[in-house]
Amino acid sequence: MATTAYRELSHGRDAVCDRFYAEFDFRPSMNRFPGIKEPAPSATWSLGRLDDDPGYVRLDRLVEVVQGGLAALAGDGPILALDWQHPCYEVWPNRIGPDTLEPPGRPGWPLSPYPDGDYFIYLADDFRFGTFGHPWELSLCVFGADLLGLIEADLHDLLGEPIRQRRG
């Protein structure tokens, strides 16, 4: 069994991205929001509260909460980490060390859930849960009942009320 924490999606990247475009009606735009058809259930938060975050305490907590929820749901399996127009990855969260306390040989996550200048997307390999970070709206959409159930309360505490919600 491979012990790598993540690997680049080179051969399957186009198929995964094409499926994401189709299933989420992805519409890259600097001024048309939201960038996807947000699935039900989902909640989308503004990341504006993180602008005034000396020491990046809230940002670090956001990353910890989202990555912890993804890891809990992935179990021993992989999730997908998509960086629009850049390399994308298959990630095994259970093989990743904490960002600040990595033991030797255990890398951190290849992407942050925070959309730092580009769309950052995390997806279950079957697309049933994940996150969509929009860099120009500066928002984070979290979707899937299981993922919302794990992290919604923490995100509410960190970021306030969602700017959009879809229940169902």
Helices and strands in order:
Blueprint: E1 6-8, H1 13-24, E2 42-46, H2 57-74, E3 79-83, E4 89-91, E5 120-124, E6 130-134, E7 139-143, H3 145-159, E8 164-166
Antiparallel strand pairs: 1-4, 2-7, 2-8, 3-4, 3-5, 5-6, 6-7
Detailed description of the structure:
The protein has helices at residues 13-24, 57-74, 145-159, and strands at residues 6-8, 42-46, 79-83, 89-91, 120-124, 130-134, 139-143, 164-166. The protein is α+β, with helices and mostly antiparallel strands. The chain has one domain. The protein has an eight-stranded antiparallel sheet. Helix 2 (57-74) runs antiparallel to helix 3 (145-159).
* Poorly predicted residue ranges: none
Largest sheet, strands/sense/barrel: 8 strands, antiparallel
Helix and strand sequence: EHEHEEEEEHE
Please compute the radius of gyration using only Cα atoms.
Answer: 15 Å
Name some characteristics of this structure.
single chain; 168 residues; alpha+beta; eight-stranded antiparallel beta sheet; 3 helices; 8 strands; 20% strand
Question: What's the short story on this structure?
Answer:
This protein has helices spanning 13-24, 57-74, 145-159, and strands at residues 6-8, 42-46, 79-83, 89-91, 120-124, 130-134, 139-143, 164-166. It has 168 residues and is of the alpha+beta class. It has one domain.
